[in-house]
Amino acid sequence: MKIVRRVGASPRERGSATGQTCPDIFELDNGDFAVIGREATAQLDPELPSDAARAEYERIVIITRETLLRAKRDIPDS
């Protein structure tokens, strides 16, 4: 599994002073996406709707609204 490209603006382009420790989204060579975000599983797991679940190996992470909105243009429609 390898990162093919960043999806959206880099942390520096989004205003990070160091450009090194911010949420980020990457497209992988198999078509999946990897996300760097704040760990929030313990806090949000009880808030999941009844028709949502996560496997034990899955985590809930938070990315900023700006990160996702600026990635929108790079996310393929299909």
Short description:
The protein is α+β, with helices and mostly antiparallel strands and 78 residues long. The protein has helices spanning 41-44, 65-71, and strands at residues 3-6, 24-28, 33-36, 38-39, 61-62.
Structure characterization notes:
The protein has two helices and five strands; from the N terminus they run ββββαβα. It is an alpha+beta fold. The strands form two sheets. It has a three-stranded antiparallel beta sheet, covered by helices on one side. Strands 4-5 form a two-stranded antiparallel ribbon. It is globular, with a radius of gyration of 14 Å. The two termini are 20 Å apart.
> How many β-strands, per DSSP?
5
**What is the mean predicted local confidence, pLDDT?**
90
Strand ordering within the main sheet: 1-2-3
What is the share of helical residues? Answer: 10-25%
- Which term fits the overall shape? globular
The main pleated sheet reads as:
3 strands, antiparallel
Number of helices: 2
What distance lies between the first and last C-alpha atoms, to the nearest angstrom?
20 Å
Helix and strand run:
EEEEHEH
Task: Give the helix/strand class.
Answer: alpha+beta
Task: Please state roughly what percent of the residues sit in beta strands, choosing from under 5%, 5-15%, 15-25%, 25-35%, 35-45% or over 45%.
Answer: 15-25%
Poorly predicted runs are none
Q: Please state the CA-atom Rg, rounded to the nearest Å.
A: 14 Å
